[in-house]
C-alpha cells in the first residue's frame, strides 16, 4: 500500500490522551492509501473511479476492460495512468489492494472469485450474480478469503435515506409500527424498440432485467430503511416490446439512445413488473418497476406508512424527505448531521472531499462516495470483514455480499411467482 499524506486525525482518548485503538487507526490512516483497479469501461465504472478518489482512502491506478482501445481511452479520460484488456494483470499485481467489478452481470461471480482468491478486497456491482448458486459461490469465496467484499447498493449512500432509516428505527417514535412499504422504480431508456443494451440479452444480463437491474435497488433500500425483511412476493412480469432492433456496436452503454436500423431480436426478459410483498414484521407492500415508462428518467421512490406517520423519499429530489401525519405534511432537508462520516466542516479530520454544507445539493456521485467511504475505512483501520446480510441489531458499515445474495433471492422469487401465479417465499 502507498502512503497517504493527509493531516493527522483526531486521537482523542480519556482526558485528551490518545487511546491505543485511536493511535493504531491514526497510523493506519497516515500510511495506507489503498491502490485500486476498476474492471469495466461502461456506464458505472467512471463513477466508481470518482467516488474512490473523493473518498480519500484510495487511488485508482488501473482500469481494465474487454477492449484494449476502449480501456485506454477511458483511462486517459479519467486520468488513470494504466489500462489493460487482460484481467490477469489486475489479479497478478501485488500492488492492487481493492478491485471494483463494474462489468456485465455474467462476469460478476467469476471476477469476484478471482479477485478474492488473489487476496484483493472487492466491490461488485449489483446483481452480485445471475442466480442464487452464483451468489452463494461469491459469498463462500469472500468468507474463505478473509477479505472485505461489498455490493454497490448506491442508494444507501444518500443522506436522507439514512435519515429515513433512523426515523423508522426509533420504533414507537415518529412513524410508529410499519404497516405498508410502497414504491416505484420507473425509467424510459428502453421504451423504444430501437433501444438495445447488453442487459436485454439473457446470456449476458440474466433471465431477469427490470427486477434484477432496478428492482433489486427498491428491495434493498426498502429493507434497509424499514429494518424489516421481505418474506414472500407475488409478482406479475410483462414484456411490452417483444422485438427490439440491435444495431452494430449497440449494447456498450446504458442510457445510450436507440437506433432505427439493425437486426430484429426476440426479447424474453421483462420490461416491467408489479410486485406485492409480505414482510416478516407483518407489514405489506407493493412496488412498480419499469424501464419503458415514457418521460420517467429515474423515478425511484420508497414510501413507508406507519401507524402515526408516513414518509416518502424520491431519488430525483434526494435532499428532501416527506413526512406526513393526519394533521400536517412537512419536508425534512439534509443537515450537517447527515454526512455519513464525511467532514462537512472541511477540517481534514476525515480523508477525502468533504460533503457540501446543507443547501448545496448533493446527489448520485456523492452517494457513491459516501457508500464506499465506510468500506475503505474498515479496510484501512483493520476492522474485521462482514459477510452476512445486514441485521438491524448488528449493522454492517457497508452492504455485504449477504445483502447482495438476498437481492438475488428476491429476483428469483419474483420470476418464479410470475411463472406460477402464486406467492413465493424468500429463503431464510
Commentary on this structure:
This protein is of the alpha/beta class and 428 residues long. The protein is 30% helix and 21% strand. It has helices spanning 20-30, 45-55, 68-78, 88-91, 108-117, 132-145, 159-169, 202-205, 210-226, 364-380, 401-420, and strands spanning 34-39, 58-64, 83-84, 98-101, 121-124, 149-151, 178-186, 230-238, 243-246, 263-266, 272-279, 284-290, 299-306, 310-314, 320-324, 329-333, 424-425. The chain has a nine-stranded mixed β-sheet with strand order 16-15-14-13-7-12-11-8-17. The two termini are 39 Å apart.
The CATH superfamily of the largest domain turns out to be Dihydrodipicolinate Reductase, domain 2
Number of helices: 11
Strand order of the largest sheet: 16-15-14-13-7-12-11-8-17
Task: Report the mean per-residue pLDDT as an integer.
Answer: 89
Amino acid at each position: 500500500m502507498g502512503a497517504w499524506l493527509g493531516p493527522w486525525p483526531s486521537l482523542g482518548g480519556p482526558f485528551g490522551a490518545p487511546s491505543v485503538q485511536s493511535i493504531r487507526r491514526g497510523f493506519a490512516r497516515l500510511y495506507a492509501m489503498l491502490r485500486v483497479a476498476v474492471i469495466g469501461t461502461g456506464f458505472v465504472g467512471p463513477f466508481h473511479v470518482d467516488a474512490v478518489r473523493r473518498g480519500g482512502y484510495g487511488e485508482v491506478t488501473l482500469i481494465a476492460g474487454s477492449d484494449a482501445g476502449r480501456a485506454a481511452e477511458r483511462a486517459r479520460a479519467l486520468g488513470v495512468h494504466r489500462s489493460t484488456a487482460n484481467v490477469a494483470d489486475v489479479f497478478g499485481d501485488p500492488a492492487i489492494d481493492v478491485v471494483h467489478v463494474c462489468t456485465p452481470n455474467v462476469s460478476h461471480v467469476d471476477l469476484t472469485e478471482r479477485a478474492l482468491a488473489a487476496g484483493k478486497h472487492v466491490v461488485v456491482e449489483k446483481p452480485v450474480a445471475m442466480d442464487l448458486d452464483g451468489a452463494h459461490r461469491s459469498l463462500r469465496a469472500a468468507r474463505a478469503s478473509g477479505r472485505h467484499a461489498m455490493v454497490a447498493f448506491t442508494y444507501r449512500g444518500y443522506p436522507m435515506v439514512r435519515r429515513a432509516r433512523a426515523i423508522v428505527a426509533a420504533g414507537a417514535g415518529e412513524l410508529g409500527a410499519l404497516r405498508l412499504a410502497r414504491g416505484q422504480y420507473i425509467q424510459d431508456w428502453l421504451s423504444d424498440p430501437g433501444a438495445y443494451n447488453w442487459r436485454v440479452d439473457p446470456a449476458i444480463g440474466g433471465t431477469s432485467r427490470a427486477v434484477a437491474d432496478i428492482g433489486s435497488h427498491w428491495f434493498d433500500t426498502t429493507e434497509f430503511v424499514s429494518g424489516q425483511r421481505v418474506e414472500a412476493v407475488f409478482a406479475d412480469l410483462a414484456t411490452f416490446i417483444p422485438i427490439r432492433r440491435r444495431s452494430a456496436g449497440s449494447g456498450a452503454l446504458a442510457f445510450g439512445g436507440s437506433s432505427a436500423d439493425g437486426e430484429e431480436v426476440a426479447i424474453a426478459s421483462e420490461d416491467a413488473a408489479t410486485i406485492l410483498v409480505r414482510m416478516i414484521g407483518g407489514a405489506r407492500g407493493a412496488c412498480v418497476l419499469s424501464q419503458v415508462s415514457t418521460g420517467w428518467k429515474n423515478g425511484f421512490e420508497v414510501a413507508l406508512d406507519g401507524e402515526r406517520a408516513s414518509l416518502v423519499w424520491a431519488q430525483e429530489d434526494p435532499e428532501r424527505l416527506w413526512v406526513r401525519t393526519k394533521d400536517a405534511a412537512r419536508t425534512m432537508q439534509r443537515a450537517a448531521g447527515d454526512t455519513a462520516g464525511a467532514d462537512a466542516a472541511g477540517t481534514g479530520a476525515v480523508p477525502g472531499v468533504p460533503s457540501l454544507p446543507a443547501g448545496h445539493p448533493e446527489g448520485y456521485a456523492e452517494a457513491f462516495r459516501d457508500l464506499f467511504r465506510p468500506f475503505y475505512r474498515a479496510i484501512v483501520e483493520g476492522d474485521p470483514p462482514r459477510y452476512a446480510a445486514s441485521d438491524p441489531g448488528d449493522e454492517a458499515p457497508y452492504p455485504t455480499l449477504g445483502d447482495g445474495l438476498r437481492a438475488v433471492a428476491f429476483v428469483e422469487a419474483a420470476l418464479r411467482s410470475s411463472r406460477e401465479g402464486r406467492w413465493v417465499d424468500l429463503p431464510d
